[in-house]
Amino acid sequence: MKALDKANLDKFVELLSEEFNVYSITDTDFSTDFDNNKALEILKPIKSAKEIVFPQTEPLFKFDLVGKEIVVNEKQNSTNLMLWIKPCDVRGINILKKVFEKDVKDVYFANKLNNTIFVGLACNNPSRNCFCTSVSITPYYKEGMDVFATSVNGAIIFEALTEKGKEVLEKVNSLLRDATKDEVEKAKEIHLQAENKVRRYNFNTSRLTWDSDVWRISEICLSCGICTYLCPTCHCFDIIDENYVYEGERIRIWDSCMYSEYTLQASGHNPRAYRLQRLRNRIMHKFVWFKEMFDEYACTGCGRCVSYCPVNISLIEILGGV
Amino acid sequence: MVLQLNPYLPYPAYIRGIRDEVLDKRPIKTFTIELKDEKLMKNFTFKPGQCVMVGIIGVGEAIFAIASPPNADCIEISVMKMGRVTTALHNCNVGDKVFVRGPIGNGFPVEEWEGKNIVLIAGGIGITPLRSLYYYICDNRGKYGELTFIYGARSSKDLCFKEEIFEIERKEKTCHITIDFEEEGWTRHVGFVPDVLMKVSPSPKNSVAITCGPPIMIRYVIQNLHKLGFKPSQIYTTLEKRMKCGIGKCGRCNIGSLYVCKDGPVFSYETLQKLPEVF
Lengths: 322, 279
What we know:
The structure holds 2 protein chains of 2 kinds. Chain A is an alpha+beta fold.
């Protein structure tokens, strides 16, 4: 394992930026305009990392409105590097990958994922709404990362997990030294400490039945869609045509199952016209139907939906974790 | 047929023909669509019951059941003027460009039904997938048993494929056409489709019943099929939902863990009865 002294952090980011579009954590989202020191400290941004591989609006192709022809322009993507992405956000992308690669491969998602390198950072200081250990991941979950890092006192120690990750560490090799035995031991200790800090709930998904009283919590739901926009695993989208004067674009844009228009049919019929139906569909999809399809929950335990719901609807409460 | 490498990229096509089916307030037109690329058109194979995404550049896409039989040299869809895309389609002329993605969905399990009697029950524009199925069965008549066809619409003016329907009536011994309310000069059935089904009362023995129409009709047809002794595994229906991607990604057409675009639109009632909130 390699280590980087935090004194060299600025140089480290600079070296990476020569080669990649480096995105890291700000208070609100993942951005190329981040503060080197703060990015290491912030637990997680308000928005999840899914935007990097599944942008909120994404052009599918252009078209010429006069001749009514489709214009496909193959855009060369530059490589993005997600610096200090947290285990829960990487987990979110792993879950999206399952959806977008099942049966028919979604090429837009696959291309972006292919062009992204994940340099993850173990989570040292989980917040009070974190519950990742209750949905079967840990603050040091590594799957899907190319490099896994842990912040240990004055240093960051790295472990390359993939070929891509090895190449990244090769780039910054001049700044790295071998990690000491103490540091490696300390990292393990930090991992376990963080794991113990995460509040653990005994979720009872068997109470998520069709006629359950649990869904009455939807009485206060505003159908604002915040939970779906911030959720790292929500992947619903709309496809619309945006027209300019002579040309236009077919774009896909995040949609939310919390909106009543989402399922509204042209005839006026709406299978999920009520908030209760929509909330029930969202939660049951994540914890019952997704489990049926992929044998895991579509939840990373990041706690964003709990933290930012304007009317304090708590997923933890819905799952019987209180 | 395999989807393109990029499943969101549609095939260029054009409208070869337009036929008025129903006029008045809820107009229905049947569009004959042909893919620009002849080779693609030849390879565009589908099963009865499958759908296509038809789009107009600058307006959007909508999903339609294919009304033409699999061996036709074109794709036919029947469209009721309802929303944005269907209105734009109704404003199209012969020769206009459209874009097609598909075929989408599972289609009817026609191989499973070989050797069985077939009962087709359609309401209104819901006849489109059953028209495709009917012609498929006609082409493979030896493989199937007796055929019963029940079709109903609000009024005689609202009947789709009028000429063809009356042609089928002449050809088949058991074709029943009904309208909801009495009209002068109408000598066939009067009443809702589920009631006519009871009057006709097809035997459940070695039969499958396939129904498509408005959700309320499907619900009562299924109820009445039960009364006639049909088991859930003998009842099939095709469903519709709002759809965007057509490949099970965009999320809106789910019924429980199933997506209507990918796992449907054809479901047996055996599957549906285990699912919540089907319509």
